[in-house]
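Tutorial handout. Part one gives the primary structure; part two gives the three-dimensional structure as tokens.
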Amino acid sequence: MRALVFHGNLQYAEIPKAEIPKVIEKAYYPVINTLISKEIPFGLNLTGYTLDILPQDLISLIKEGIASGLIEVIGTSYTHAILPLLPLDRVEAQIQRDKEVKETRLEVSPKGFWLPELAYDPIIPAILKDNGYEYLFADGEAMLFSNHLNSAIKPIKPLYPHLIKAQRGEGLVYINYLLGLRELKKAVGMAFSGKVTLEAVKEIEAIPVWVAVNTAVMLGIGYFPLMNPKKVARWIKDKEEILLYGTDIEFLGYRDIAGYKMSVKGLLELLKELNTEITLPSKLKHSGKKLYLRTSSWAPDKSLKIWTEDEGNARLNMLSWSLKRELAFFAENSDARGWEPLPERRLDAFKAIYKAWRGGDGEY
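Part two.
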């Protein structure tokens, strides 16, 4: 069996706010409606903030999927905050606010938790367990590299550096792409099946999210050069009890990668090629593995540097900590500190901090 999870965040760093209605029309509606109509079960991880601004007819469609047993609602942080960068009281506030929204709008209490950017530290499972969560999603590749805990002594190297270079348009792009495909196929082969138990402040079950598998699926269903659903199916045919897709819903119908746009139709083609049973994420079997997961994320080097090292990010993080309990949720939004954030997204966080500092509620 295999599973699907779709992550939705309408505070997406690279999407203009004016485009939100188009994102909902081009990605959210067709993906959710198609999978429900085809009776394909899936996990749905929408931030509480996203749920708060979705149109009511889409909320009704999601509730229909929940009632029919096709949708497993997954919790996350309310404004997609990077939890290891927050004080513990703010970690819990983000978790609780998101859960409250889902209980109110969807009338369901999620049991699985999606770590934003899969950013993790060993105390987060304890806070999740304290708030009724039973399992989480974590980066599978970070699990492979957790045998050494000090990245200052032994940095983690990306598994497919040439593909990353090709995506960034660096060097001889096509050559980097070809080399990257070889690296990617090897990385897919490293993925193991099933859930694991994480040794943490409080033990918790975790479903590995394999970035290499996600990437291969995206390249295949997007018909990138030398890639298609049939080829990807061959790459992953022996990978049972895994997530086939565990990333942004916006990539299916709205947002392209290097000019190639994926669709739910392409995903259906892959499922047909695999001839596999799709199940809800929580139903995936346990691998029998028990391990320690280092503080990490699903960035290529598994670190938190993307959200900390830039001067603007460092300033936002420092100001967020200084405000502590008075801080508004919107100042903690990770997409103000994202991979390549738009100025308006970054400004939203600075505005929220300013309003909170002046004694307002920090909403914008």
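Part three, for discussion. Residues 102 and 183 are 39 Å apart (CA to CA). The chain has a mean pLDDT of 93.
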